[in-house]
Amino acid sequence: MGNLNYTIVTLASHSALQILKGAKDEGFRTLLIAKNNATSFYNQFSFIDEIISVSTFAQFPTLEKKLKSKNVIIVPHGSFVADLGIEVNKKMKLSYFGNKAVLDWEADRQMQREWLQKANINIPKLFGNIDEISYPVIVKSYGAAGGRGYFYAKNRHDFKNKMKSFRSSEFIIQEYVIGVTLYTHYFYSVLTNTLEIMSIDRRYETNVDSLGRIPLRGQESLIIEPSYVVVGNSPLILRESLLPEAFAMGERTIAASKKLIDKKGLIGPFCLETVVTSDLVFYAMELSCRIVAGTNLFINGSPYAWLNYNVPMSTGRRIAREVKMAIAKNMLAKIID
Questions:
Q1: Across the chain, which distance is largest between two alpha carbons, in Å?
Q2: Secondary structure E strands in the chain
Q3: pTM higher than 0.85, yes or no?
C-alpha cells in the first residue's frame, strides 16, 4: 500500500508545521485539526491537504470515526496531552505513532527520576523534607506546560513564603543546578535499532532570561519573581568532545525504557532536558517522550541531521520517513499503538 493511501494527522499547535511538511515531503497526504481562530493562518501552507476546524481540541474524540475512514496515522506532540489529557490519548482507537505506555512515565516526575536513574544519568537532588533545604531549589508542578508552574527559591525561608501562593497540589522540590541548559533531540528507530541526535536547542524563558541581563545591583532593587515560561528557542551546537556522552545518555535512556516500560520501550523522537556544569558534567532535569518544540528551529535540518542525510531532515520528516519505511517493510505494527 503506497504512502498516499495513508494520511498523517496532528493538532494545529506545537510542532504541527514541521510534522506535516515532513509528511508531505515523504509522500503522505496531510490533515490538520485546527481551532477556528487559527484556520486562516494554516490555510496558507500548500503542504496541508485538508483542515478540519473545531472550536476546541476537546472535540477531537468526536472526529475519530471520520478520521478512521481516511486511514490516518496520528503523530502526537506536546499539545495532545496538554489539551486532551492522558486518558483521551490512551483511549484513542486511531493508529497512533509511538508507544502510549510512555505517557504515564512522562507525566509523573517521580517515575521520570526512576527512569533516568535506571539509565545511569545524573539527576539533581530531590528534597522530600522542607527542613533539608539549605541552598537554591526549583519547584516544578506535575505536567507544567512550557515552564508554567515553576518557581525558584533561594533557601528554606524563601520556599515557605512562595508556597503560600503556589496553587499546585502535586510538585517536586529539586536542587537548582548551575550551568548551561541544553536540550538534545533524539530519534530512536525500532525498525533498525539505531539512535540519532537530530538537533540541540536552548529555551528562552521569560522573565528569568531577561532578568539575567540586568546587573546584580539593579536586580536587588526590583521586586520581580523569576518565571520560566518558554517563549522561544535558540539553536545550540555542543562542544564535540561532549557529543559521545550526549549520545550515550540517549542510548541508556532507550535501554532503560525497554526494561521499565515494555519490550517496545520508547519509540521515535524524545528529548533529554539537561544542564551542563562548569566541570562538563550533564544533569538531566526532565525527559520528554515525543517531539519537542525546540525542533522547530530545524525544519530545514540541523548540522547533526546533515551528517546522516543528504536532504533537509527535520524531526517531523524523520518521523514520516520511519512510517514510510514501516509501510514498505510491512512493519507498521511495530511503531504504532
A1: 66
A2: 7-11, 29-35, 50-54, 72-74, 95-96, 137-141, 150-153, 171-175, 180-189, 194-207, 228-235, 268-276, 282-288
A3: yes
Q: What is the pLDDT of residues 217-228, one digit of tens each?
A: 655 666 666 666
User: Where in the chain are the domains?
Assistant: 3-96, 105-123+178-203+232-327, 130-175
Q: Under 8 Å CB-to-CB from 161, ≥6 apart: which residues?
A: none
Q: If you search the block for the grid coordinates 486511531, which residue do you land on?
A: 94
**What cell numbers appear for 309 in the block?**
542525510
CATH number at 3-96: 3.40.50.20
Name the CATH architecture for the domain at 105-123+178-203+232-327: 2-Layer Sandwich (3.30)
Taking only the tens place, the pLDDT of each residue in 154-209 is 777 778 777 777 777 678 888 888 889 999 999 999 999 999 999 999 987 776 55
For the record, the C-alpha cell of 299 comes out as 525544519
- The closest alpha carbon to 102, from 92, 119, 118, 89, belongs to 89
Phi/psi zone of residue 295: left (φ > 0), alpha (ψ -120 to 50 degrees), beta? Answer: alpha
Q: Cell 540541540 belongs to which residue?
A: 200
What is the phi/psi pair of residue 35, to 5°? -70, 150
Reading the block at residue 58, the C-alpha cell is 476537546
